[in-house]
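Sequence design from tokenized structure. All designs in this work follow the same two-part layout: the structure record, then the generated sequence. An example of the structure record is given first.
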């Protein structure tokens, strides 16, 4: 059996199940408002598959990684009714970091791409931690994170001779 036939069969089964659930439970799965994050994710997967199939065009990894992560973020937002939109914004930075880090890991070991990916990853981590810490410790605002990082970096510079 051909691989394409198996994939097509699985897609048809999943669409049939979704349509059956739509009729049975009155959930509208087939509106563009519901499907656009999945479409975005699948476009990212197609970029990824294009690279991993022939390994010739590494440029597909960057938009592939970005679109896949953005698709997941938007799916999460749709499923939670945008309740977490105040907390999820650092993940947009993560999507770009994933694209650049994939390019570095799987295609070309370009130091500039690695540095850019790591800077974006650090921006994501610092931003997300500041949001988490501000919610756990309300007295600690996001304004305290940057000075604390500078103080820790200064201590490391002094201690490390």
């Amino acid at each position: 059996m051909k691989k394409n036939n198996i994939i097509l069969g699985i897609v048809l089964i999943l669409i049939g199940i979704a349509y059956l659930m739509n009729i049975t439970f009155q959930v509208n799965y087939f509106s563009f408002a519901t499907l656009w994050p999945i479409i975005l994710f699948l476009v990212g997967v197609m970029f990824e598959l294009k690279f991993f199939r022939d390994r010739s065009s590494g440029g597909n990894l960057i938009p592939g990684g970005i679109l896949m992560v953005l698709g997941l973020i938007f799916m999460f937002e749709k499923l939670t009714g945008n309740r977490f939109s105040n907390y999820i914004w650092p993940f947009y930075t993560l999507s770009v970091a994933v694209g650049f880090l994939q390019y570095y890991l799987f295609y070309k070991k370009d130091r500039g791409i690695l540095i850019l990916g790591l800077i974006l990853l650090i921006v994501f981590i610092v931003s997300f931690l500041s949001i988490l810490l501000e919610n756990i410790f309300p007295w600690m605002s996001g304004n305290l994170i940057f000075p604390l990082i500078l103080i820790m970096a200064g201590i490391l510079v002094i201690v490390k001779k």
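The two ends are 64 Å apart (CA to CA). We note this feature because it recurs in several other targets discussed in the main text.
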